[in-house]
Design goal:
- Helix content is about 35%, strand content about 20%.
- It has 15 helices and 19 strands.
- It has an eight-stranded mixed β-sheet with strand order 8-12-13-7-14-15-16-17, sandwiched between helices.
- The chain is globular, with a radius of gyration of 24 Å.
- It is α/β, with parallel strands linked by helices.
- It has two domains: about 150 residues, Rossmann fold (3-Layer(aba) Sandwich); about 220 residues, 2-Layer Sandwich (Dihydrodipicolinate Reductase, domain 2).
- The protein binds NADP nicotinamide-adenine-dinucleotide phosphate.
- NADP nicotinamide-adenine-dinucleotide phosphate binds next to α1.
- It holds the Pfam family G6PD_C.
- Belongs to the glucose-6-phosphate dehydrogenase family.
- It comes from Larkinella knui.
- Catalyzes the oxidation of glucose 6-phosphate to 6-phosphogluconolactone.
Amino acid sequence: MKSTKQPQPTVFIIFGGTGDLAWRKLAPALYNLYLDGWMPEHFSIIGTGRTQLSDDQFREKLLEGIDQFSRSGKAKADQWAIFSKNIYYQVSDLKDAKTYHELGARIESYEAEWNEKADLIYYLAVAPNFFPIIADNIAKKCPKEGMDRTRIVIEKPFGHDLESAKALNKQLQGIFDETQIYRIDHYLGKETVQNIMAFRFANALLEPIWNRNYIDHVQISVTEQLGVEDRGGYYDGAGAMRDMVQNHILQLLCLIAMEPPINLDADEIRNRRVDVLRSMRRFDADAIRFSAVRGQYGHGWIEGKEVPGYREEPEVNPESNTETFAAVKFFVDNWRWQDVPFYLRTGKHLNQSASVISIQFKNIPHSIFPPEAAENWQQNRLVFSIQPEMSIRLQMQAKRPGLDMTLNPVDLVFDYSGTYHGKPPEAYETLLLDTMMGDQTLFMRSDQVEAAWELIMPILHAWESKKSLSFPNYPAGSWGPENAEALIAQDGFHWFTLPVNGKHG
Ligand code: NAP
């Protein structure tokens, strides 16, 4: 496919070019953008890191990543040969001023060769403690006259708490305009997540029932079978609330709960998302006890394989108080959603990996059917499966064929793989293209990040100030701690079984 719109000439600088993110996500995404005709005629990708590599060695490393992780499969030699000519590597230490002078000189040399000015995208694929150092150095040492063509992409985590997020925002906004700052939450780039907007706002059918009059409650589950793997060092200082709820899950909630925007302008949509965060009910100490549950996995079994408990994982404190599971009940206090509970749960080493949003509608007001007709009665439910299954299902009651009137639930299904051919773009493709195009719709604005932190800080304070005596409180391979069941059961509900390979349990 050849695109109709094309980004400006671009120099793409990846700080952390030798890291995991660049290898698994960024290089495959840029390569697929190139294959699909989205890259500008003139572009350069400069990776940086302390590892001693030549340009060719760096290209080889990225090719390995592309061959393993690209949705389009292994790179073809002729296409790779053309694409890889645009890739360079610079050995450099982020703390050394020389790094930025050298980058500046490279940028100027590409622009001279192309005889045109380029957009400069600095991608910070490094540990968060480097974010302020890099931003400061870009401002001081990189070409001054290129500042208005500069964009800076910041990976998660954006801050460790409200205070540090505010400090980072303040620092970045002292150097860049907000329109130049791209805070990534890669969930927003996922095809299925973007489709929530399309589904809600391109269909007249849903809006009249998308409110407290018809919706009983909402469940958002983002569950992982994987444990912390080799990220114990990072994760032990973060936990499930910071790693998943503050960013990905609250953004999913915003897409479900937001008011219709008047158009697709980035700030219009981001205003509507931030309105949701601002409307969410705050937690006091009592509310936290009844509205939030934490868990930590102990030793257990995942698909027949024995796995250690969290406290035995590498680089994890053997007495760690870090939660690997969180379930929270939120409310959005506005006309549309007053008193509709939004239940969120996320965790590591759970029974299954899936990201699913379920909208549970209220029951019919009066049944004309005898009780025996409804063998398996289920209120209508709309289920957005984000991953691994990519589908939208509307669960209805229908008559089972036969001479008697027997009702059972059936699914009206929109399944991506059955409807469209080929694999949809990866989230990072969408987000990198948007960065090149200067479209910030799918990126987090400073006020969104801060509003999300503000909301969860009381829970974090409560959990951090009081060590859990029950950890570990769920075995790896289970569905989390019993208290998470109680959290939802106290309101008369239960966690829904998640769809697996087209089946709904
Ligand atoms: P990583 O594999 O540990 O890579 C870190 C990178 O930083 C390496 O390229 C390393 O290069 C470079 N680096 C470290 N110290 C340096 C220094 N003093 N000077 C120059 N370069 C230095 O980390 P990652 O997994 O790619 O993650 C990068 C960022 O993305 C983190 O903020 C992470 O939270 C975020 N993130 C990652 C993922 C993911 O899937 N990996 C997902 C979401 C967010 P050398 O070793 O060559 O110096």
